[in-house]
Amino acid sequence: MSQHMIKTALRILVLAITNIAAIGYGQEFPTKPVKILVPYVPGGLIDLMGRNIASSLSQHFHQPVVVENKPGAVGAIAIASMKQLPADGYTLIVMEPAVVVTPIVQPETAYRVNRDLQVVSIVGATPLVLVVNSSLPVRNLKELVSLARARPGTLNYSSAGIGTTLHMAGEMLKAQAGINIVHVPYKGGSAALADLLAGQIQMTFLASTVVSQYLKDNRIRAIASTGPKRSGALPELPTFAESGFPNYDVTVWVGLFASKGVPQDVLGRLNTAVREIVETEEFRAVLRKFDVEPMGTRVEEAQAFLDREERKWTEIVRANNIRPD
Known about the structure:
Shape: globular
Largest sheet: 10 strands, mixed
Strand content: 15-25%
CATH class of the largest domain: Alpha Beta
Distance between the termini: 73 Å
CATH architecture of the largest domain: 3-Layer(aba) Sandwich
């Protein structure tokens, strides 16, 4: 090969490398479609929130953002799938408190939130509502606690399974009130609700938007809201704090996560996008519909929030010796 041909080939190679670098770094993330994994079946709060986040991000980035449901094992299946893909920000996952609680309750769980995931932002949070079957002779939290103390081990509460937020809300009540109520885990929230309505279960914790649908026929009675302030859907209902338990605070928060190791500039772009979306009236109207309080935290705020959640639930799990069945 002649000297001229060698020089020409080198120039072409340098030009090609330069063009590749321009494509990789000259254009801002994202330059292709983004996927958001939802670790639950379609139709629930986390799925609906995930779809609204995807739609808003798509408009913000002018790129398709698609949702893929990967239910099973309280998020473990979706997270395992995510770990097989590059940590480039193009695969995200929307999660709730179970991402923190499950590894605490079940140490054999294959993931750890701070080891395998990078929080992008906590989008918002909604309170639960403690409800009882209307046959139970109580109308407020003080009366319920008094009844439980008078009849230890005879009242029960349902949940959607071991380690779910509904379960942990009951355990926190037991710990703070010093009462003995029996946990009855179900394989899903709908079955837990059905037995409550039928009178087989005395009490449970439900999303406020679900509760409002069943209060009209007087089969259940709302007792207290679990969040730091009153529910927007049930503004007349007092909180646990107002009812004598100032340290009680349980919310179903919704967070967007990327894989651990996502580039900092990509993480920053995603976080900025989420915070800007949460500030729009269109997205806030969606949050109000679900009775979700907007948050839109910065990355460092989100991480501090997760650390507090982990400390809180670790203490509850250990104090009550909570173990999977």
